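Today's session is about reading a structure prediction critically. Students often jump straight to the picture, but the first step is always the sequence itself: look for stretches that repeat, for charged clusters, for runs of hydrophobic residues. Only then move on to the predicted structure, which in these notes is written as discrete structure tokens rather than atom positions. Here is the chain we will use throughout the hour.
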Amino acid sequence: MKSTLKLSFATFVVSIGMSGIALAAPDNVSSMTVATASTTGVQLTSGEIRKVDLEQGKLTIKHEALENLDMPGMTMVFKASDAKLLNGVKQGDKILFRAEKTDAGFMIVRLEQAK
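Below is the predicted structure for this chain, in token form.
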């Protein structure tokens, strides 16, 4: 009986893994209010661009809490991981973005205009 149960569970786990269904929960319940990019499942945070520095590849953003970094809302400077992320953005734009901590500091790894 136990071996049948183990085999059934193993079959279930493998089939879920192969189907592409994610069995992960958000980092915490409050992160459920953060916008999610539907095509990638990546959590994006709302913000407003306060300053654009194309020469340095940096944005100053007033942002809501960054749940993935356990950081409260504030205004701070982020470096873009790719200069292309800064194409077409300007001061005052409402955005959705993803920042991650790297050895080089806090980097924007995804950015899109808010709708």
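Discussion point for the tutorial: The first helix runs from residue 2 to 19.
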